[in-house]
From TrEMBL:
UniProt protein name: Hcy-binding domain-containing protein
Record domain Hcy-binding: where: 91-380
Source organism (scientific name): Nocardioides currus
Pfam families xrefs: S-methyl_trans (PF02574)
Source species taxonomy: Bacteria, Bacillati, Actinomycetota, Actinomycetes, Propionibacteriales
Gene3D superfamilies: Homocysteine-binding-like domain
Length: 381
């Protein structure tokens, strides 16, 4: 799915640009302009950034979980902060996807748009207005690679993020067009369209000033436009804060009560999100909140994603589906841009391991391309 497409996206191969000072977390600018936007997480507060995961360590994975799960959820889970626990008679996403598992999602969008000439510093969302053919071509490349779900080019489509580029006034148009573009490609190939929501770029109180209602309103206006453009499901991704996830879920539920909701978080800080959420916490909390699928995206590469996936599998309750969309490794600075170090074959082998432990939806995030998705498809065939 998309993750962020570039800026939606995903990765940027360009030199990282420092945005204007947008203070958010102490010592960090992850939520700042380019960091969040491009799914980077490099500038962590020192005390967090210093903690590194030992990539070489063998991890103990518990045994695979069979794919057919108990029909009823018995989650108890952790306290659900804002969302009322709600009975969901069936998993709406499972009903939409049918029985084949894992389902193949798409990969990064940003790099593809930059390769098509998106100017450095311009948001990928701008091209939903100004260069829809390039956005369409990126979706078509993923469709041809075998993705079953296309993710709209709207990762940075909330008002605060569009405002950074003077596009806030065109929010409805940006998001509606994005959904229509993805819809047109999906219809040619018989695929689904995920309407993509990324972090707002603002922090909830008390770290920031945004209230839960503010956050819900920001997500709601984006979802409304995406629904007008014809999405099949709502994908909220790269989140760090469960409170922000709850706001997005509430918005999706209010605006589009019939659409499946998928929420993925980025566990890029010692296998927790920047806000300290562990994979098992996310699965418990979001499952109890009634999402159809929960998972991890972005992060620090396939190896760490497999640790996260194993923890999510252990924490799964009921019929919630699990999602993993790893970056194509870690970005390495090469000359004046970033390159990601996982090859298509690397991501394909990774996807096979995810499938073996019972992950239901597999795709890529930053640095992944149609070539990666095609390799995953071949491996999972
Ligand atoms: Zn990413």
């Amino acid at each position: 799915m998309a993750r962020a497409a570039i800026d939606g996206g995903r990765p940027s191969r360009r030199r990282e640009r420092e945005g204007p000072a947008r203070t958010t977390l102490p010592g960090g600018d992850r939520r700042g302009r380019d960091a969040a936007r491009r799914h980077r997480s490099r500038r962590l507060p020192r005390r967090l950034g210093a903690v590194r995961v030992d990539h070489g360590r063998g991890h103990s994975r518990r045994g695979p979980r069979p794919h057919r799960r108990r029909a009823r959820r018995g989650v108890a889970g952790r306290a659900d902060r804002r969302l009322p626990r709600r009975a969901r008679p069936v998993n709406r996403l499972a009903a939409l996807l049918g029985t084949d598992r894992p389902v193949l999602l798409d990969g990064g969008m940003g790099t593809l748009l930059q390769d098509s000439g998106l100017a450095d510093g311009d948001p990928g969302e701008l091209w939903n207005l100004e260069n829809p053919d390039a956005v369409r071509a990126a979706h078509a490349a993923y469709a041809e690679a075998g993705a079953r779900v296309l993710t709209t080019n709207t990762f940075g489509g909330t008002r605060p993020r569009l405002d950074m580029h003077g596009l806030g006034g065109r929010l409805a148009e940006v998001n509606r067009n994005a959904a229509r573009i993805a819809r047109s490609v999906a219809d040619e190939h018989g695929l689904l369209v995920a309407g993509d929501l990324g972090p707002t770029g603002e922090l909830l109180a008390p770290l920031g000033t945004m209230t839960p209602d503010d956050a819900q309103a920001l997500f709601a206006e984006q979802v409304e436009a995406l629904v007008e453009g014809g999405i099949d499901l709502v994908l909220v991704e790269t989140l760090s804060d469960l409170g922000e996830a709850d706001a997005a879920i509430a918005a999706a539920r209010a605006v589009a009560p019939d659409l499946p909701i998928v929420v993925t978080m980025s566990f890029d800080t010692n296998v927790r999100t920047m806000m300290g959420v562990r994979p098992a916490d996310a699965v418990a909390h979001l499952s109890a909140g009634g999402v159809d699928a929960v998972g991890a995206n972005c992060g620090r590469g396939p190896e760490e994603m497999e640790l996260i996936a194993a923890e999510m599998v252990q924490a799964r309750t009921g019929d919630v589906l699990l999602v993993a969309q790893s970056n194509a490794g870690l970005p390495q600075v090469v000359g004046d841009h970033f390159e990601y170090d996982a090859t298509p074959a690397d991501l394909a082998a990774h996807a096979e391991r995810l499938a073996a432990i019972g992950i239901d939806l597999v795709g890529g995030c930053c640095g992944s391309t149609p070539a990666h998705i095609a390799a995953v498809r071949a491996a999972l065939a």
